[in-house]
């Protein structure tokens, strides 16, 4: 059976459907998710536990997973904000995102599901039997321990969801970095070539002026045209150079921001505290469960010294479980908020990676575009071509002699 986990809060939905059931009914994945958990179509991204994207066309991949779990990212909860690749924007989300975050946290905020306090007034009754009160403590402990277990499981699922999101971000970052490396060498070489041509224009013009190549070549009108061509080249080169510096700085910012986002995955303090609370509550639960059968065989009516000691142990264990449930619920709320922030940051970085790849492709195309540099390239080669022509003429004359 397919198990669906919502990444934002770790809530798990156990369905009664298999992949074959979905395919047999002709439903797509989003329709199935809307029917099972009420998430509207087009507002969710689904991933397998190994980080692969899950879609309708690759549902069969879910059958090959041992855990049969798909993780859902509810995109309206974690929309990317337009950072323009600036550190200040990443640190301070827009006001609209902040208000949305507050609204989402109101929806996902949990209150500790504490059981009603145990009524011990029955101990004053002459017909009081310890088994009656022991049963009440046991039922409360059982229900609260189950709540603690569910909360801890949801924290683990949230941690797994963060791991998947970070791994997906890493893969996208690696892909973009590989594309950048493929473009970088050629881009730097082209920019260096342009800078060299611009720097050598004056020397090229001075050398050409010494040779009577053509009577109009160094006329005032021709010199003015060369001046305009050089200015156009300088402007183009400056623009391309600035875009390249921006590309390099952006990639570094994306790498650093991705490392910051992954800090939420490596920081397991809240999860470790929750594990500790679960251990404490289980110990207390065991103490309640252990004396309870013994109290069942106690048929002496009314409180005794032994039953009073037993009640003291029950009270302490009950208080311990209640405290553990309250604290782990607060940890859960804190972890959910951190999870939302991390997922939103990853969503923003993923969006920025798409923009970065587009900017890089546009820059690569601009570097390959024919422009005024072809003119000063011909100027640079002109004196060499003239010299080679003269040498060839002399050589041929020598052969004819």
Automatic annotation (TrEMBL):
- Mind naming one GO cellular-component term on file for this protein? vacuolar membrane
Is Protein transport included in the keywords of this UniProt record?
yes
Tell me where it resides: Preautophagosomal structure membrane; Vacuole membrane
Q: Membrane topology type, per the record?
A: Peripheral membrane protein
Report keywords, A-Z.
Autophagy, Membrane, Protein transport, Transport, Vacuole
In the UniProt record, does the keyword Ribonucleoprotein occur?
no
One GO MF term attached to the UniProt entry: protein kinase binding
| BP GO terms, sorted | autophagosome assembly; autophagy of mitochondrion; piecemeal microautophagy of the nucleus; positive regulation of autophagy of mitochondrion; protein transport; reticulophagy; ribophagy
* Principal location: membrane
Query: What does the UniProt record say this protein does?
Result: Involved in cytoplasm to vacuole transport (Cvt), pexophagy, mitophagy and nucleophagy. Recruits mitochondria for their selective degradation via autophagy (mitophagy) during starvation. Works as scaffold proteins that recruit ATG proteins to the pre-autophagosome (PAS), the site of vesicle/autophagosome formation. Required for the Cvt vesicles completion.
Q: Subunit structure of this entry?
A: Homodimer.
What family classification does the UniProt entry report for this protein?
Belongs to the ATG11 family.
User: What name appears for this protein in its UniProt entry?
Assistant: Autophagy-related protein 11
